[in-house]
Amino acid sequence: MLVGAMASAVSPREPVAKTNKKDTNIMDMLSSVQDPSEELLWPVRCLMRMAVVRNCLPSAILMLNYTISNELRWQAPKSRGLSSSPRPSLGFFLALVDIILESSEEATRLLLDMMVEETGSTYWFSIDDDARLALCLMSIRGKHVMIQEPEVRVWVLEKLKDEIESLAESSYHHETLIPDEWLKEVITGSFCNARCDLLGLDSVLISSDEEMTCYRQDMIRIRDVLAPEKYSCDLDYDILIASLLILARRDCDSWREGCNITVQTLLNTVCDLAGRKIGIEPKFVFDSSKVMYQCALSDNLQAAAFLVGGKKGMVIECADLLVTALDMSVDDAEKALFTSSLVLLKKVITPLFNGVTHEKKEDSIFTPGINHQHLLWLLDEHVLNIQKYGEFDSSNSQKITPVFVGRICFRAWYCLTRPQILDSSAKWLEEWTRRKVDLSNGQSSKRLACAALVRSLLWPDEAEDLDDEDEPILAAVLGFDGRFMAELAQACCGLVESIPTHLAEELMSSYGSTNMLSSFDTSPVNSIST
Hints:
By secondary structure, the protein is an all-alpha fold.
């Protein structure tokens, strides 16, 4: 009876949609959609409620598939002769699907399993792309249930991949395949599906410390709100990262209206979470290699850095600072940070500042810019605040150690500083470091931090470099005062962490474990002191 009433109500009185142009934006259509009359919907609503109560939901959905197949797929009826029939209205289509999905949690799967008798295609593969775009945004009980289903998720990822590749290959004037508003809704839906606190995310305050301003500070706040440990495995990283990469490539400032978190900062945070190893099986299998390729296509070094993590990620993160500030290529930036020769580093960097002069007296006084502040934050986080001896352990080749971070950051500092103000920057950095490690007259409360600084600034990376007389030490390249370095060395005197691992092992094997440092020649310290 209900099926008959439904067919009778729909056929003569169903609203029709205007003819859709190929380039019609689905988001524009959704913003102007009109809700259909309840007289059209009550038979379907009653049928679904009865089906749930009597436990016959599959049969009820099957009846709908045969009775109002075109309305459920937002398709025009088959034309007869030369005349063409219009599509049903978008509002009626969405209302029908919403009633079905609201009826039960299993209704989503039953709807997608519906088949077209003539072709044998299941529901998702029997509808047009604009209908698919609209269904992806449907929210049922606070969740975007469609994008969690396998065939829908695969289709979404394929659309995102095509858009990223199209952006990478196209010129400046690019006809977008996916609207920005649709991407933002999918991102919001993915967070809702993972039970993230969106209200808390909207209220995250982006602060700016006067001394150190770094987007990593904001990432920590976002991460704490975005993915509590209990639910972090529910995030669909493939969809989130691809969507955010597209928005970042299109220079979108915000991913959500009313939220002050930038697209790039949110992307960095999601990539950082995706790159972390957790002991919980994720809900969605993360294709890290594919996403990394998409980061490369999008020329997004920051996203790639946090996705890779470890030492490689740290090098890429600092390389991004050089690429942005000095217009260097990525390869040249990585070589500048990771090359074993400081002589070569000076030869590469000096020509970049040729022709740059300081016209005002103030220009010769160093003031840390945003890139220098980023390096200060990294030094403060990974070098100056270490608490455990185990943080120096380098047995894991990808583990970030304070010595490694120190070398990379100090090299980056040198690259970002104009030769004309290098001495001024060295004095500023000395004073800042003194305050951070509480250094006074060769005494410090942070001896491990002093050991990391000494090992980063006074010792080369590899054992074979010790015999290279022409190779300067990093402290001298930066312009640090010898007395400052001598105080640092004195503050960590007796700590084996202040010398390279291979040298410590040689000394232990030669002199034994007792009084090992009594006959140790601190030639690097003596050389810079003179």
